[in-house]
Design brief:
With about 450 residues, the protein is of the alpha/beta class. About 35% of the residues lie in helices and about 15% in strands.
């Protein structure tokens, strides 16, 4: 049994059987976090401040004789942890997730929203809303079937065709989510006897796809080509390397050219998840691979519709043979209802806007520079980020939730991220910049962040 650390979470992998004992979920700050096999799940009734010494990683299935026993243990902890401020993620936004949001129970004013993925500001564009409404009127509320049965609509084919054309590829395939796209593609392409290699900070969907595939899973140090080469050098059989373009918790980019060269040298196929880089990087918005000039070296391009295009869903583009194979075997798509037509109609409009308005990307990058400079001037530690995802490093797991409440009280909406979404003592806020932000409100938000952190004794 080999124990492996994933960005603060632990997975036990039996190399012989390749069966996970617990699955980590990296990159998700929500309550449905990872489960640690290495920590004792037996929890007594919580008393006093004891809840502060535990977190979501202390709960796993397999506790007691009944599969429901873990719920009782969790409930005892949660009854104290939630009122104590452990979790802010059931704060409902009472408005569209725009550049300003309304959270009435926290503030009577609309807060500057730095937490949404709406990078190009397209989710509320008039053309997008009108196209979504038109598709709703024509096709109805849902697809009412999986794509291989009655759920494939002409609007789905239209979007897939335009996504392929946008990326300069032969074909594309839609998935219900980015998560299901990664899980479906990886588990379809590799299996027992194959080798799949990924970054230690890879997203949960990549890790879960690797585990589901039952391939020999190998991990290399974050953004370290030398570590990747060591994993590939003695790998036998078919090999797939899976990385991200922009890493969602740190905002840094992959050394894609070096990784592509290693894949060529060792006969591995390369898959890049461009969830946070498609439509943002590159002269035409095709992603980090275009930005770095290595598009032809990437075999599989995966993206989402929930970030820059402001909707939901995932997709993969590549050769026609690849897409036809995935259509036949990618279970997360074959056995899921197709995307709602209103979503697809809106995404089509958003895609066309992204293609014809490169000034949106220019505005986004101008805003990123404004925010980065403003945070630096405030003495805020932004880690290694070079993208539109900017971490605000706090490194205080115990107090980050209360800091988030102070930020909201002062007018900024951000979510606290701590273990097990990131490593212990690496808690942070994740700032997401949009082309729709005004530079003046970004400067105001940076000043608020700096002021609150200084009050807490936190600085760069």
């Amino acid at each position: 049994m080999q124990q492996i650390q994933f960005s603060g979470s632990t997975m036990n992998i039996d190399i012989a059987k390749r069966t996970p004992q617990a699955r980590p979920i990296e990159g998700s700050p929500c309550r449905t976090g990872p489960q640690l096999a290495s920590e004792s799940p037996s929890l007594p009734a919580e008393t006093g401040p004891e809840w502060q010494h535990k977190d979501l990683s202390h709960f796993r299935n397999g506790t007691g004789a009944d599969v429901f026993d873990v719920q009782e243990h969790f409930a005892k902890w949660w009854a104290r942890a939630k009122p104590g401020g452990y979790d802010l993620h059931d704060l409902a936004i009472h408005s569209a997730p725009d550049v300003r949001v309304s959270i009435p129970r926290e503030s009577q004013e609309r807060l500057i929203n730095l937490a949404s993925y709406n990078y190009l500001g397209l989710s509320r564009r008039r053309e997008v809303l009108e196209a979504g409404a038109a598709a709703l009127g024509r096709y109805g509320l849902g697809a009412a079937g999986s794509p291989c049965l009655s759920g494939l609509l002409s609007v789905h084919e239209e979007l897939a065709s335009e996504l392929a054309a946008f990326h300069g590829k032969e074909a594309a395939m839609l998935f219900p989510s980015g998560y299901s796209a990664n899980v479906g593609v990886i588990s379809t392409l590799v299996g027992p006897g194959d080798v799949v290699v990924t970054d230690t900070l890879a997203h949960a969907s990549i890790l879960d796809g690797c585990v589901l595939s039952k391939a020999d899973l190998r991990l290399f140090r974050h953004n370290d080509p030398r570590s990747l080469e060591r994993k590939l050098a003695d790998a036998k059989g078919r090999k797939l390397v899976v990385i991200e373009g922009v890493y969602s918790m740190d905002g840094d980019i992959a050394p894609l050219a070096e990784i592509a060269a290693l894949c060529r040298r060792y006969g591995a196929r390369l898959m890049v998840d461009e969830a946070h880089s498609a439509f943002v990087y590159g002269p035409r918005g095709r992603g980090l691979s275009e930005h770095l000039g290595v598009t032809g070296d990437v075999d599989i391009h995966l993206g989402t519709l929930s970030k820059s295009l402001g909707a939901m869903g995932g997709y993969v583009v590549g050769s026609r043979g690849l897409i036809e194979y995935l259509r036949a075997y990618a279970r997360s798509q074959v056995f899921s209802c197709a995307l709602a037509p209103a979503v697809v109609g809106g995404v089509l409009a958003a895609l066309r806007i992204a293609a014809r308005e490169p000034e949106l990307r220019q505005r986004l990058w101008h805003n990123v520079a404004v925010m980065r400079d403003a945070l630096t001037a405030e003495g805020v530690d932004t880690g290694e980020s070079t993208s539109q995802v900017i971490p605000v490093m706090v490194r205080d797991d115990a107090s980050i939730a209360s800091i988030a409440r102070e930020l909201m009280a002062d007018g900024v909406y951000l979510n606290p991220i701590r273990y097990p979404a990131v490593k212990r003592h690496q808690s942070r806020f994740r700032v997401s910049i949009s082309a729709a932000h005004e530079p003046s409100e970004l400067k105001k938000a940076a000043a608020i962040i700096g002021r609150v952190l200084r009050r807490r004794g936190i600085s760069a």
